[in-house]
Amino acid sequence: MTTSAPVLPHPGYLGSHGNPGGESIILGHPNAAGKISDVAGADFTLPHAVVARLTIDLAPAEDGTSDAGQ
After folding, report:
1. Which of 8, 46, 58, 62 has its CA at a distance of 20 to 30 angstroms from the CA of residue 37?
2. Could you give the CA distance from residue 25 to residue 17 in angstroms, rounded to a whole number?
3. Considering the domain boundaries, does residue 32 fall inside one?
4. pTM beyond 0.90
5. Listed residue (60, 45, 47) closest to 68, CA to CA
6. What is the 3-state secondary structure (H, E, C) of 27-63?
7. Count of CB atoms within 10 A of residue 13's CB?
8. Residue 69 gets which letter from DSSP?
9. How many structural domains is the chain composed of?
10. Residue 60's Cα: distance from chain center in Å?
11. In angstroms, rounded to a whole number, what is the distance separating the alpha carbons of residues 41 and 20?
12. Cβ neighbours for 21, distance < 8 A, ≥ 6 positions apart
């Protein structure tokens, strides 16, 4: 499906650094498994928050050589 609607960043959970208005219902409250999320650790809107870390390892070529840097 093609759309012309803009893609915008998520504002953050209620009560987060990026979306401070409203009552927090996720940060610092139990989830479906009964675990309580760490407010600072779960707030992806905090400056310098790490949302994901990707590591890419190059596989050797079929002849056993490396294509790294080419």
Report:
1. 8
2. 14
3. yes
4. no
5. 60
6. CCCECCCCCECCHHHHCCCCCCCCCCCCCCCCCCCCC
7. 22
8. T
9. 1
10. 30
11. 16
12. 14
